[in-house]
Write a structure and sequence with these properties.
This protein is mainly α. 73% of the residues lie in helices and 0% in strands.
Length: 278
């Protein structure tokens, strides 16, 4: 059963917004699939959505990404006259160091531990996600920037982000929580989490491709619902842009503690949905 255009639009918008807020995009996708009367995801649609979200991260963080690229070109250039921005280069190094354990962990959890859990499992992970947000937001905010972060910090960020393979565990929640717990300023923590979203979303896109090739989700047609896929991708891009802006505002001005209650509510909702289909 394919989604109609309205369902494709809703799926894309919610996936995009939830991806960059600490509430787990995968959990919301699973709940939406239940309401749409579908038993499993469409890896082709998810591939379109993940590609759109990579573009939205690039658009939403373009100034920071451009700074990193300029400094890396300067570092590799023979022209050493301009003073390097060490902080920007260290931002890039931290993200690279965190990306490797994150991507490896995502693949291990997806293919060894089989992260495609039921609504009951999703409810459990949403509960845990809410507890993490509740605890971390009550920690004293530090003021560490990239120059004070260590390789251990990047390793912890990457390992924690890998658990976003489970529906209900948010990568933004994991990485910002670890960073803040290690004493980082909230804005810095969010910036690193957003930059880590790029390799994470590329990894998820690779998983989608493997699922399409292997036929894990049955025979899927790339052209079968191309307009629906495009609608999901465009709406995911727009939702992602606004999700990034909202995350930036909340991280600095409010914090994420309110999302702990949202996650607990979503957990209860998922549990009740599970009971209706059990």
């Amino acid at each position: 059963m394919d989604m109609n255009l309205l369902q494709s639009l809703i799926y894309g918008v919610i996936s995009g917004i939830a991806e960059f807020l600490p509430i787990s995009s995968q959990a919301h996708q699973k709940i939406m699939l239940h309401f749409f009367g579908m038993s499993q995801a469409d890896p082709v649609r998810d591939l379109f959505v993940h590609i759109a979200l990579v573009i939205s991260v690039y658009s939403g963080c373009k100034s920071l990404i451009d700074q990193i690229r300029r400094e890396q070109r300067q570092q590799n250039s023979r022209n050493r006259t301009r003073v390097k921005n060490t902080r920007i280069l260290m931002d890039a190094r931290l993200v690279k160091n965190a990306a490797i354990p994150m991507v490896v962990g995502l693949l291990i959890l997806t293919y060894i531990f089989k992260t495609d859990v039921s609504l009951l499992g999703t409810a459990g992970f949403l509960l845990i996600n809410g507890l993490v947000l509740f605890a971390v937001d009550r920690m004293m905010q530090g003021n560490k920037d990239i120059r004070s972060m260590t390789y251990l910090d990047s390793l912890l960020m990457g390992v924690s982000a890998a658990f976003s393979a489970f529906p209900g565990i948010s990568r933004i929640a994991c990485t910002t929580s670890v960073s803040i717990g290690r004493g980082a300023h909230r804005q810095n923590a969010l910036n690193w989490a957003l930059l880590l979203s790029i390799p994470a979303l590329i990894a998820f896109g690779g998983i989608d491709i493997l699922r399409i090739i292997s036929g894990e989700y049955g025979n899927v047609s790339f052209w079968g619902n191309i307009f629906g896929y495009i609608v999901s991708a465009l709406s995911a891009y727009i939702g992602g842009i606004y999700g990034i802006k909202l995350a930036g505002f909340l991280a600095v001005n409010v914090g994420f503690s309110g999302f702990s209650y949202y996650c607990w509510g979503a957990s209860l909702f998922s549990f009740l949905l599970y009971l209706t289909v059990a």
